Amino acid sequence: MPSMSFSDYISSSPSLRYLFFGGKGGVGKTVTAAGTAKFFADLGKRTIISSTNPVHSLSSIFQRDIWGKGVQKISENLYAIEFNIERTVERYRADMREKLMAFIKSADIPVDPEPFLDAATTNPAFEEAAMFDEMVDLILKDEFDVYVFDTAPVAHTYRLLGLSKVYDLWLKRLIKSREEALSTKVKLSFRKEKILEEMKKDPILQSALETRKKTEEAKKILTDSSKTAFFFVTLPLALPIAVIERFITWVKAFDIPIGGVIVNGVIPKSLGRVPNPSTYVVNKLKEQDGYLELIHQKFPDLVRAYVPLYEREVVGLEMIGKVAEALRSGGFELIQ
Ligand SMILES: Nc1ncnc2c1ncn2[C@@H]1O[C@H](COP(=O)(O)OP(=O)(O)O)[C@@H](O)[C@H]1O
Ligand SMILES: [Mg+2]
């Protein structure tokens, strides 16, 4: 057994609190994230699983409408939150409008802000940024022991870390120029104590400072390998393997801690050892063997667990409990 198992990895990282799941659509990110959340809840940790996915995947797996309803208790130590991102985007838009109007007013620019707002907010990056913000806000509230994020915003995280230098420079300049503009205004009135007061009220400066603080905190958390781990979920198939290979290269480049790879949907090899196995099973197992070998070659020492392909969809706490059990055991017997 060359790789450290999921259980061993978790016990070797006692301060682990933030777990992210990435991978191609449909590979079982929600399933393994829910299994992981159950795993931690069973250890007695107050655990929350969170999703910003617009397809209501948590409502579906927990068989309860929790979408847009805030934190919901699922079972002992297990909580879930499914964000309504459309609503977040709407709120951001209103907030941006307010700030833009204040700016236009203070700078005396006679311009209609609507086209700018449209351009800024009807952009997929805006939605992604909103999701990212919800995630950081949830973390910063610090109400849980363990946070499991279904579907990591891998692309956004990657961009955030890559752009953070440029972004930081831009924010620094923005902050400096707002400070200068305000202090000139205040100096003219010869009332120094008004400088601070005015600055505190300036909505543009405030939001720039807040964004910067949040970006920094997010960056600190995301790159702390004692607290954070990204897990990559794949099926024993070519395309999902290629997707996580790309993700792993990205996150490595930015020192985002990699928890490991979870191989989902594994057909137990024992099915081929029954008397007269069907050709279908024999062929599928042969194909699977090839991909398991490929996974082994591409991600040596990273496979943490094999989760079996169940006879039916994974919905409801009982099935999620089975996934938690598979993670706990590592499922290495499936491939023997
Ligand atoms: N190991 C498994 N056995 C059986 N069905 C599974 C398994 N893993 C996932 N599924 C099913 O496959 C579908 C996709 O899984 P899901 O976790 O929603 O993928 P993702 O979140 O990566 O898009 C769901 O219907 C789920 O119930
Ligand atoms: Mg999902």
UniProtKB/TrEMBL annotation:
Domain ArsA/GET3 Anion-transporting ATPase-like: 17-327
InterPro entries reported in the protein's UniProt record: ArsA/GET3_ATPase-like, ATPase_ArsA/GET3, P-loop_NTPase
Cleaved signal peptide residues: none
GO molecular function, one term: ATP hydrolysis activity
Family recorded in the similarity comment: Belongs to the arsA ATPase family.
Protein name per Swiss-Prot or TrEMBL: Arsenic transporter
Organism in which the protein naturally occurs: Candidatus Korarchaeum cryptofilum
